[in-house]
């Protein structure tokens, strides 16, 4: 059991956390995407504490968060010109770039045994101040128990990791709510490994990239690709199809499911609430408007954790029909959350 200290977001506590990073301690801090569980990414023993706290598979690589671009050439080699175009347009911000790692600099545990390194400069002012105060690259996956929905508020972190980490910042809600876009530049043409709030269309305005393909095979070059992720405690089914047909199908299934499960939940858009059957032991939780996918992304993990709080036994979720832009990232997280348990109607 670790004695966890809760920190305020002032300069005094940022200095305490930065000193903790230097000493090999673990610090949970808000970014603009989700909360990160950070440690000195160049210290093998410190990074091991991340894996231990999360229960994370050892071949799942970590993102190194840096405070200025000068760190890139200390950590990576064969950096293509496209990288600097991306930096000019998207850093600091929710874009992670995978490059060839400089040998004998970054511990193997941080790289997940790969010869590539994932780098990001976060846009959250507290995260940047913490990194620059410590003057070290901070390895930081999402600050949740491995497999659970990522934390978008410090209360989620306390629920999952209190007593397992040294420091937790009480930083409120994160503004975006889903993890960064991950772009692989280590092998030539850019390839999206994980979709996020920076979309394929936005990237294509700057550099040429390959679109994200769900269920990519091969080595795990990015977090959030292979393993069970973002899942609520109850089993979950996603229904995908035209709007009205999806709601009709959800309503058709509710009575049957209530014969099997004590309580069920329905995840829907705001526009769906009045169309869904109302009955006892059914909890309808809207995730946001279908016309405002930023709100959906921001609320998604919070909504999944709400079902845990409600202790539902089964979840029906509507999917996003014909996803594009940010919809691709939201669909990706829903697919992971339900373990690809999807019915297309």
Any low-confidence stretches, pLDDT <50, length ≥5? none
Q: Given this structure, which CATH class of the largest domain is correct?
A: Alpha Beta
Q: How would the global form be characterised?
A: globular
CATH topological fold name of the largest domain: DHBP synthase
> Under the CATH scheme, which architecture of the largest domain would be assigned?
Alpha-Beta Complex
Distance between the termini: 48 Å
- The oligomeric state of the chains shown is single chain
CATH superfamily of the largest domain: DHBP synthase
DSSP summary, beta strand count? 17
Taking the sheet with the most strands, its summary is: 12 strands, mixed
Strand-residue fraction? Answer: 15-25%
3D structure, described in words:
This protein folds into 2 domains: 5-210, DHBP synthase; 236-344, Rossmann fold. The chain is an alpha/beta fold and 345 residues long. It is globular and about 60 Å long. Helix 8 (200-204) links the parallel strand 11 and strand 12 (209-210). The longest helix is centred in the C-terminal third of the chain and has 18 residues, at 243-260. The protein contains 11 helices and 17 strands. The N and C termini lie far apart (48 Å). The strands form 2 sheets. Strands 1, 2, 3, 4, 5, 6, 7, 8, 9, 10, 11 and 12 form a 12-stranded mixed sheet that branches.
Question: Helices and strands in order, then pairings?
Answer:
Blueprint (H helix, E strand, L loop, with lengths): L4 E3 L3 H12 L4 E4 L4 E6 L3 H11 L8 E3 L6 H4 E2 L3 H10 L4 E7 L6 H4 L4 E5 L4 H10 L3 E2 L14 H8 L5 E3 L11 E4 L5 E5 L5 H5 L4 E2 L25 E5 L2 H18 L3 E5 L13 E5 L6 H18 L3 E5 L7 H12 L4 E3 L1
Parallel strand pairs: 1-9, 2-9, 4-7, 6-10, 11-12, 13-16, 13-17, 14-15, 14-16
Antiparallel strand pairs: 2-3, 3-8, 4-8, 5-6, 6-7, 10-11
Helix pairs in contact: 1-6, 10-11
Keywords: ATP-binding, Cytoplasm, Nucleotide-binding, Nucleotidyltransferase, Transferase, tRNA processing
GO biological process, one term: tRNA processing
Catalytic activity: L-threonine + hydrogencarbonate + ATP = L-threonylcarbamoyladenylate + diphosphate + H2O
